[in-house]
Amino acid sequence: MEEQISKIKEVAVMEINKATDAKELDEARVKYLGKKGELTAILRGMGALSPEERPIIGGKVNIARDEIESLIKEKEAEFAKAELERKLKEETIDITLPSTKVKRGSKHPLNRIIEEVEDLFVSMGYDVVTGPELETDEYCFERLNLPKGHPARDMQDSFYITSEYLLRTQTSAVQARTMMANEEKGSIRVICPGKTYRRDDDATHSHQFSQVEGLVIDKNISLADLKGTLEVFVRKMLGENLELRFRPSYFPFTEPSYEVDVSCFKCGGKGCNLCKQTGWIEVLGSGMVHPNVLKMGGYDPEVYSGFAFGTGLDRLAMFKYGITDIRLLYQNDVRFLNQFDRLDR
Amino acid sequence: MKLSKNFVKDYVDIDVDIKTLAEDMTKVGNEYDEAGKLINATKLVIGEVKECEMHPESDHLHVCKVDVGTEVLDIVCGAPNVRKGLKVIVALVGAELPEITIKKGNIRGQESNGMLCSMLELGMEHKYVDEVDKTGIHELPEDAPVGEEPIKYMGLDDEVIDFDLTANRGDLLSILGMAYEISAIYDKKVKEIDLSHKENSEDINDTFKVEVNTDNCSIFLARKVKNIKIGESPAFIKNRLIASGIRPINNVVDISNYVMLETGQPLHFYDADTLNGKIEIRMAKEGEKLTTLDNIERTLSKEDIVISDGEKAIGLAGVMGGLETEITNNTKNVIIESAIFDGVKVRKTSKEILRSEASSRFEKGLDPNRTYMAIERACKLLEEYAKGEVVGGIAKFDNSDKENRNIEISFKKINDVLGMEIDKKDVLDVFRRLSFNVIINGKESDFSETEQELENVEEITVSVPRRRGDISIKEDLIEEVGRIYGVDNIVGKLPQMPLKEGSYDKVNRGIRNKMVDLGLNETLSYILVNDKEAKYFTKDETEVVKLLDPMSEDRNTLRHSILPSLLKIYEYNKARNNKDVSIFEIGKTFYKQAEEYGEHNKIAALMTGDFYLGVNNKKQVDFYVIKGIVEELLDYLGYERRYSFVVRENQMPEELHPGQSALISVNNDIVGIIGKIHPSLVKENVYVFEIDLDKLLDKKVGKMKYKEFSKFPSVKKDLAVVVDKNITSEDIIALIKKAGGSSLDGIEVFDVYTGKGIDEDKKSIAYSLTFEKMDRTLTDEEINESLNKIIDMLEKKLGAELRK
Lengths: 345, 804
Known about the structure:
The complex is a heterodimer of chains A (about 350) and B (about 800). With about 350 residues, chain A is of the alpha+beta class. In chain A, about 40% of the residues lie in helices and about 20% in strands. Chain A has 12 helices and 10 strands. Chain A has helices at about 1-20, 20-35, 40-45, 55-90, 110-125, 135-140, 175-180, 225-240, 290-295, 315-320, 325-330, 335, and strands at about 100, 125-130, 135, 165, 190-195, 210-220, 245-250, 255-265, 280-290, 305-310. Chain A starts with a helix and ends in an 8-residue tail after the last helix. Chain B is an alpha+beta fold and about 800 residues long. Chain B folds into 6 domains: about 1-40 and about 160-185, Phenylalanyl-tRNA Synthetase, Chain B, domain 1 (2-Layer Sandwich), CATH 3.30.56.10; about 45-155, CATH 2.40.50.140; about 205-400, Phenylalanyl-trna Synthetase, Chain B, domain 3 (Phenylalanyl-tRNA Synthetase, Chain B, domain 3), CATH 3.50.40.10; about 405-485, Phenylalanyl-tRNA Synthetase, Chain B, domain 1; about 505-695, Bira Bifunctional Protein, Domain 2 (BirA Bifunctional Protein, domain 2), CATH 3.30.930; about 715-800, Alpha-Beta Plaits (2-Layer Sandwich), CATH 3.30.70.380. Helices cover about 25% and strands about 30% of the residues of chain B. Chain B has 20 helices and 42 strands. In chain B, strands 27-31-32-38-37-36-35 form a 7-stranded mixed beta sheet. A 5-stranded antiparallel beta sheet of chain B has the order 5-4-3-6-9, with no helix packed on it. In chain B, a hairpin with a 7-residue loop joins strand 3 (about 45-55) and strand 4 (about 60-65). Chain B is elongated, with a radius of gyration of 42 Å. Chains A and B meet through strand 1, helix 5, strand 2, strand 5 and strand 6 of A and helix 9, helix 10, helix 12, helix 14 and helix 15 of B.
């Protein structure tokens, strides 16, 4: 009997080892361990054995059974592993193929600049205000100390709708609106970015362009405050360590008025093509708010003073992103737009 | 304004070169475009043609031997007027002319060592040269000294700065004004102008009357000069006119221009014999006719100031004279007009007729003291250079204010505005340099006060001469101090104001960020479009807004919708083979309603081509893609479950596909449109939407709050029904919701099918239903009961069949 057991085991081990797949393994399991299996048959036939022999033979059968079982398990695991490996191999893909994605989105570079300017001034306590683009002559000119027939109106050839309505030529139009809206006639700190329009279209001018206007009104505001503010602005937008130069100029709504030049950020002031060998680039118009403008806005120029500044955002965007042709900003070629989709660190 | 250095040196000494002068003027606020020599040519010499033979190999070239003083050069010349004995301008080998550099050459076998020049080749503008120079070489006078430098000999060795002046500095439109400005910069004295002349014993007032019948003329002076000889002007006058950008004509006309350049006061000369002994200044009658000296008959309006001979108009004041009374080659006697007309009126008239050197000076305002100065200066020059006899007396009307303007200002105010600490003495020095008088404690200052003497002086009165019409208030004086003293030393600081958080439009920014996140490119387009397309994609009562004076017909109207702008961008990209275009823009649209104008803030998008990209995973934009964008945006803005897409006949814009478009409704109010562009407008599959942001954002939304979800498992059941094709999914969902009861938590469409197995007029729609309770797990019985109710309802109301 003992011999028979070890024989069965021997054959079983051989067969199990020979098995090449899960099916053959299962057949072996049925053949030896199943209800009608060979080892089971021995257990069944144990009734014929003496009570002394029974536990011995029973023990041997169980040991053989355990050994066969664990061998089957081992073999099973082997097969499962091989199967998994086969499957993984089969599932291998070409990871260099392009990804699936939504078409990319981007902000227009001019609006990126506007957001940057807004964030800077908001952090300094300025409110961002807006005004109509279809403006009245009163707010665009008259309240800015430019009465009808004033020769300085030639500086801005306008798109008129009627004799009273026009497309605003400058965001300065919002100055008067802001002063009028301030009912307590308290201090004012605003910027106004937005679209402006002039009858002018060539390689360097677009009939539609964007400006940002700044206005600060309070007691004791001086040109030094203007200079300090513009230093923060220019250095943030165009580069640290840039120097400013105030060049006297004329705007009807400020007195004194200054054009603000910044030391050339390309050559550092040594002279290059960008600054036309002068070392300076004109970037802003500015000045102290004209007393007539304050008066028309309801502010007493003996008590209040203020500064205002304005700059073209198109040029700023061109400087910042190295755009050489203003028309690119308005053509909206998607190959252009797609380039402005990253975090500008 | 072109400034001739030679001209201004009559009135102020200049020790610096032209570039430095231009830069220093820029620093005080007078920008320039160009600065340099009037004639930019080197290595020129006066020569004499000693021999001149025809070139053997040519029918028009000459071979010349030219004496240039140091040697005799062989030069080949093609000019028809070259001849033996002629004095010529020779550009030697190595000479740099504006267009070319002269090299030793061999022209058809003949050596040529230089070039004989016309003034054109020396860079003089076409309008200044005479016929001889246009076709040939310049002919110098017989006595021109051989071997010398010709530019200097001709008096053209001048330098010019072309200024781009600001609109307030009308005073700088004169050599004298420039002299005062330069004198302030370099602390020099301005020299007196010579007004001396003789006059005869007659009195103009005996034979000539001036009558002013309008408020638009503050001063009118007339003098008479008899027996003038019309001829060529002396070289210095011609050269200075050329340097200043004015073409010389004859001595009389040149003198009127010369004096205008010197003093800033425009003059007009009349042929005295064509006048009836009278000049009247009045407003024109409506429809009055006048032939101006350019031989064009003008029809005038009552806004035009005219000069009349007492009967009819003979000139447009400050703009252009009349043909009848102009100076001709036969003119003997001249009436000189020196007057000031209202700038606004002159500006208006000149805008319609001609902007001239004269009109731009009237527009910017003139000094009546110069009106007197100019007429005397003209008499002097006519006497000297036109052999005229000045008639005694002056016929005049004078209502002008010639006094200085006195402005009080404190030293503190100057420093407060500039944010600097400027010494009192330095402030006074600025006014001294500007040749302004200063009154300290009622006494005119001689500018010798020491800082100690000024210690208790807080306020001064500055007396500003009339020539500086731009200065009328304190702030103008502060600007002068800033200009002349300089503001380079100001130390920048930030305004001391209370700390606060600034505000900006966060919603607008949020919308832009969301759209970019969704994969669209933001555009910035022109708001001006063609009137035909301006109203595309809109259907409302308001009118479009048109420009009075457009630059082109293509951009003559303000857009009524953003979509026409986006359509143009689409076409631009299509032409460049950019097929995948998904763009959006936030901007304004404009309308007119009952003579009132208004703006709307809108967002619009246009999508076409592939939107989801990838191998085998591409997805072309269709209605549902753009609808998804709209839903994402509305959900993001807090309008979840408050919007729907509805179709209303007669309200759909014609530019959209009638079967693939809808109105966007939020809170049952139409806020926008969505759909495919009509194939008659664009044949590709292009989808758009536009939402009126003013209307949308007006609808309030609550704060974002956490909402509890069920802790118990939910159960999903699928349900597919076959219904008539014209039944919308929205109709079905409404019934499912109604029948499903409170435990039905979600409904999603997961399949729509037509085709094999389904009748042609039917479609199958499959829904995935989610059942869930907040307080317990649902039993199978409960769910089946709900499901049966839903099926019953759909069968009864829609005749739906369950699809097995």
